[in-house]
Amino acid sequence: MEEKVREKVELSIVIPIYNEEENLPILYEKLKNVLDLLGKSYEIIFVNDGSTDNSWEIIRELAEKDPHVVGVNFRRNFGQTAAMSAGFDIAKGEVIITMDGDLQNDPEDIPKLLEKLNEGYDIVSGWRKDRKDDFLSRTLPSRIANWLISKVTGVHLHDYGCSLKAYRAEVAKNLDYYGEMHRFLPALSKVVGAKVTEIPVKHHPRIYGKSKYGISRTFKVLLDLILVKFLLDYRTKPLRVLGGTGAVLFLIGFLALAYLVFVKIFLGQDIGQRPLLIFGTLFVLTGIQLISTGIVAELITRTYYESQGKRPYVIKEVVTSEAHAEKEALEAAV
Ligand code: UDP
Ligand code: MG
Description:
alpha/beta, 50% helix, binds uridine-5'-diphosphate, 8-stranded mixed β-sheet, Spore Coat Polysaccharide Biosynthesis Protein SpsA, Chain A, binds magnesium ion, 2 domains, 15% strand, single chain
């Protein structure tokens, strides 16, 4: 798949879309109003994440008629994080703004985000101070998760889950993340030394279409958090954390067994029935296991850093008005 090289712009808006046919036209109009007033060069990148409704047809039409719109179509549903990551890769803007395609985020907040970014930040995250989602199933679990993420990662935000965020492009493009990791981008950006802050943004209830997530997401987020902690603190030195624990366990086990050997040989007592024997053996074995896992992790980390060019998604096509016009011209000439 070839894409014509697009020009650099000041602003790229990246919007993952999964079955948002009713929202798309309204969102496009609202965005356009705000962006045209802003007076900056911009592009709107809609990434269709395998929608089964008419979303792609709508995006294609918008992209064909409006030079500001870029449509990216995934071969299947790869998830919101993959869609955002594709948007980041393709974005030509100096600043990248991400938002949801369901009208829950408000395009009118974009100028405020930019203003804050210009104060010298690399990432400005939206904070849905007055969140319009179900309290028990969404807002409450999310508060607990946000508190925990802030504690564990040391990057303090009220609302990791808010999609409306502004990034300096070089920061966004240098982050690597997989699975459902997009909410952790501000935390992961610690690795590249980004300056992160937040501002309150508006939030609206979802009117058209359904939310793609349920309560189970909270548990997945907690699992991801363990991985994020690992990536943040130990990704360049896994042997230290795994091997360190392993060495301590090994030592304890070794001392226990040495003591038993002493008891057996010099005191002539039976040691077959002693619980310490099991503990000692377990500790020694676990210690060796952890150390070898640490060494394997070191090797994998190296491969991870040295291997290049892998992306977590497959793009089917990219439309722009220029490419479309060219194709039409070609077809007309035939
Ligand atoms: N989305 C996506 N792929 C998915 C799930 C969601 O691209 O597999 C998009 C969805 O179309 C929306 C955004 O991600 O633009 C957020 O989804 P949703 O509104 O369902 O999440 P919520 O606001 O309920 O957390
Ligand atoms: Mg939503």
